[in-house]
Design a protein that fits this description.
Blueprint: E1 6-9, H1 27-34, H2 38-41, H3 45-62, H4 67-70, H5 84-92, E2 101-104, H6 110-117, E3 125-129, H7 133-142, H8 148-152, E4 154-157, H9 163-171, E5 182-186, H10 194-206, E6 215-222, E7 227-232, E8 248-251, H11 254-264, E9 269-275, E10 290-298
């Protein structure tokens, strides 16, 4: 391990890195839940917080103990933090009722539900994640299993490096493997070491429709100076017996992200990126101060 790579140890115990409550809710978060289901609409903020915490605790232990789950990132739809013009461009691509949206690494599905509440039909939506338990937890979190989003949206287990899984994601898109009109990826690309970023992006772009104007947008951890860090998780027993040499990840800035796009698909995409909000103070990675929003549009 290079001495120049920052090591960030992630606690397993959820109480070590998060407050006990997601309160107070901002208006956007409250609306996301209240509009999701009549069962949630009648809850007080305190009752809703208790419900969210119970599901959060299960989600945190379902797979890797991701800090974004521990610190209630899923309460705030990340897609809503895009620049207004970027969001409107993304949303406009989904006005066609035959258009398809893929929320890749969707977790409990907060972003796809935000878009559903903004008029995207359930049958247009596909969520994919490495951990399929998140799909059921999302339906419990938003109490919408029997509603349109629960009945019509598709959810697909996908390891991005598994060809069979990728084929399943592709077959859920437009008929005849026509791909997706919009892909949203929140908090995903930064999970991998730099050496894998081109491969990951190549697979993500392979899901896209070939039509000009299709777009892929997302939100990831970023820094002013692109850099690798070492993220180390203990196992569920609390042991640190992890192969730290293979635990590094890479944080982009605007220039480095654009360079990866250009390397993977030279001249095919117009990418815009912008530094967004800081990490919440409770997050263990609080000394990595930036997030990066981006949108790439096929030329």
């Amino acid at each position: 391990m290079s001495s120049s790579v920052k090591r960030v140890d992630m606690p397993y115990d959820v109480t070590e890195i998060t407050a006990e409550t997601p309160l107070p809710f901002d208006d956007e978060s409250r609306q996301l839940f209240k509009q999701a289901s009549p069962l949630l609409a009648g809850l007080t903020d305190e009752e809703l917080a208790k419900h969210i915490i119970a599901v959060r605790d299960e989600a945190y232990k379902a797979s890797n103990p991701y800090p974004c789950i521990a610190t209630f990132f899923f309460v705030h739809p990340a897609v809503s933090t895009l620049q207004h013009k970027w969001y409107r461009a993304l949303r406009a691509r989904l006005n066609d009722p035959q258009a398809k949206l893929l929320d890749f690494a969707c977790c409990v599905g907060q972003d796809l539900r935000y878009l559903h509440q903004d008029g995207v039909k359930g049958h247009q939506i596909v969520g994919a994640d490495l951990e399929p338990k998140y799909f059921e937890l999302g339906q419990r979190l938003f109490a919408d299993k029997e509603l349109a989003i629960g009945r019509e949206a598709k959810f697909v287990e996908c390891d991005i490096f598994n060809a069979r899984h990728r084929a399943s994601v592709m077959s859920a898109g437009r008929p005849g493997n026509g791909g997706y009109d919009v892909i949203w990826i929140g908090f995903f690309i930064h999970l991998f070491p730099f050496e894998q970023h081109k491969e990951v992006l190549k697979y993500l772009l392979s899901f896209m429709s070939k039509a000009p104007g299709t777009c892929i947008a997302g939100r990831l951890a970023g820094t002013a100076e692109a850099q690798p860090i070492l993220r180390v998780y203990p196992d569920k027993s609390g042991s640190w017996s992890i192969d730290v040499e293979n635990a590094s990840l890479f944080l982009h800035n605007e220039d480095s992200l654009k360079a990866v796009f250009e390397d993977v698909a030279p001249g095919e995409w117009r990418l815009e990126a912008q530094v967004a909000k800081r990490w919440p103070p409770a997050l263990a990675m609080r000394d990595l101060p930036q997030m990066l929003n981006f949108i790439a549009t096929r030329k």
